[in-house]
Amino acid sequence: TVREAGGDSIVSLSNATHKAINRKSIIEKRLLFALDQQHLKVLYQPQVNIHSGKIDAVEALVRWEDDEIGVVSPDELIPIAEETGLINNIGSFVIEEACKQAAKWHNEGLDLKISINLSVREFRDKNMAKTILETLETTRCPANLIQIEITEKFALEAEAETSIIKQMLKLENEGIVFILDDFGTGYASFRYMQLLPIKILKIDQMFISSLLKSEKTQRLINGMVQFGKSMNLTVLAEGVETKQQQQILKEYGCDAIQGYLISKPVTHDAIRKLIKLPMK
Ligand code: C2E
Ligand code: MG
Ligand code: MG
Ligand code: MG
């Protein structure tokens, strides 16, 4: 009967909710342990100049495989970490790893920029800029080798919080470059373009993946590239998987690409090897 069906769905819904809450608390518990045991890792994905094929930078992406619960993807991990506050610990870890790595490469004569993803929650910490600058110092990493990727959601919230903008300007003043990540998928507020020190526009992979499928998407992407250019920004496209996508992006005037066409995220050793190969 209807009543029974209704009853069932209520039971199964609360079961699903219960499972989700359970999973979250397991992840939280295991994450605390993983952070303590230094079980998190960082992989790097090249960002390549579309004309020269040279690797200009690499994006640091966190990886976690837990002994008990297996691989937890960043798409599951990051939102839970944000909710529980553990994002600050992940952030500190990734920042330190990235600075150490950039400094190490720098000492080997390789000036490769490293991009770090930071969430707005991390910047609510009033000491964020200070912590980053201190890490640069202790690791002896030149500030101009570090880029920070923020999302549109971040940009929108930062706009409302003067202390976040102040911290960004402080970091920019030291030579750190800000990238607007996942461009086009958030909120269409152009006000943050006016307020925030953004140098690179990163077009979201969602657009790139449908680039060849629709003319409308092509016009949209072309428009985004032209917008970036008119704002004197460097335009980077993420999620580039095919030569065809690369070719069209080049025609539009896109400056740099990142994606499986070049390489998946890999270890720092593998990046070292990739540098020695021509990327075109
Ligand atoms: P994102 O910053 O937009 O990173 C791009 C994501 O797309 C990465 O997934 C990358 O592995 C994937 N990707 C790169 N090239 C391709 C491609 O050609 N095709 C496809 N299909 N995918 C591609 P990942 O590593 O799973 O990270 C997902 C998201 O999690 C990131 O999106 C970022 O927002 C967040 N994230 C990752 N690491 C960190 C971190 O250390 N801190 C913070 N706050 N967020 C992070
Ligand atoms: Mg990113
Ligand atoms: Mg992105
Ligand atoms: Mg993305």
From TrEMBL:
This is EAL domain-containing protein. Coiled coil: none annotated. Residues 24-279 form the EAL domain. It comes from the Bacteria.
